[in-house]
Amino acid sequence: MAIIEITVIPLGTATTSVSKYVAACHKVLKEEKDIKYQLTPMSTVLEGDLDRVLEVAKKLHQVPFQEGAQRVATTMKIDDRRDKTNTMEGKIASVKSKL
Q1: Is the dihedral of CA 27, 28, 30, 36 positive or negative?
Q2: SS3 of 77, please?
């Protein structure tokens, strides 16, 4: 199971606000039943099979273009652990257990 942090940034829009684009991305995520996701203040975290998560990341990259943006910069960080099950909750619980 992979965890990906993704940030999709539309460039050259009429406003500095990006919340409309984030909301449009999350509408796409709601349709992806096999992908778990979490909105954070600076990005979105996806969890699922690596191939599926990358497929969904590509869809998210396309969203600002569909909303009228002419340029999009997308960054991703991938945590793909193979020695044991990797989940968003598990990563957070691991840190909390050490506090």
Answers
A1: negative
A2: strand
Q: Would you list the DSSP string of 61-75?
A: HHHHHHTT-SEEEEE
Query: How far, in Å, are 2, 39, 52, 77, 98 from residue 11 at the CA level?
Result: 28, 20, 26, 20, 40
Q: Helix (H, G, I), strand (E, B), or coil: what is residue 28?
A: helix
**CATH at residue 74:** 3.30.70.930
Q: Residue 99: its pLDDT value, please? A: 97
Structure tokens at 58: 């590509």
**What DSSP designation does 7 have?**
E
Query: What total number of domains does the chain contain?
Result: 1
CA distance 61 to 25: 8
Q: Say what the pTM is.
A: 0.92
